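Re-running C-type lectin domain-containing protein to confirm reproducibility after the cluster update. Everything else is unchanged from the original entry.
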Amino acid sequence: MERNIPRLLLIHLIFVVLSTRPCAATPGLSVLKVVPISNPYSWAVAQNYCRWHHSDLITIRTQQQADELAPYEGWIGLYSDTSSPEWKWSRGDERATFFNWDSNEPDPSHHCVLMHNSAPKWKSEDCSSSQPFLCDEGLILVQENKTWEEALVHCTQLEAAGSTTRPYQLAILSEPNDNLMDTEKIRLNATTYEVWVGLRFLAGDWLWMSPNTPASSDLPQCLAEQQHCGSLVPRNTEWKIMSCSEKRNFLSSRRPTK
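Result of re-run:
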């Protein structure tokens, strides 16, 4: 029973936050965090998977982003309707303005796009073909200064953009130096040196704001008074333990499915 106390406290904290009266929340700045999925699916199934478990298939808007994704391969969010030659991104049906086509591409008979890691160029492909794929976690940087708990409430009030209504929460990150996350964009746009994430010390344990996500074992267990909340330092890509009453920008992500 004692081992379950931290998770029971976490569930109670989440319940209190979800019971807070909703109000309009300021949206934030989208930050790319790529989640490679190795299981091969058709483009439509891959799109549904990303929307259900993460945010959507990835959108690539610049050559720098395309170059950073060079080690990975699979479906991306670019597609065209059979009735129109216009290329769009899955997320919000945004019209594409950047392309990284391989030679002799695109094939007018193919309407979905994948990238190869051997030559990080884009290739059009039959949408029914089974391929690995790249999801976007859908991180949001909120450039408002709030305490950790105020940030937690704010995240639940963000409007879920796109085709899914899955709500937001303070971001859950596996590691601070995740090379699939655009930490440079966070560093350049955050107005505070640290940004809150969904990491909290409760009843002697560090926990993420998802009961099934284990926290890093490297986090300190002997803490100064009130130093019970976790933040990310984008400049050094490291965790920083702080007083929960400090006011900082924060990262938000969609709540995982059960």
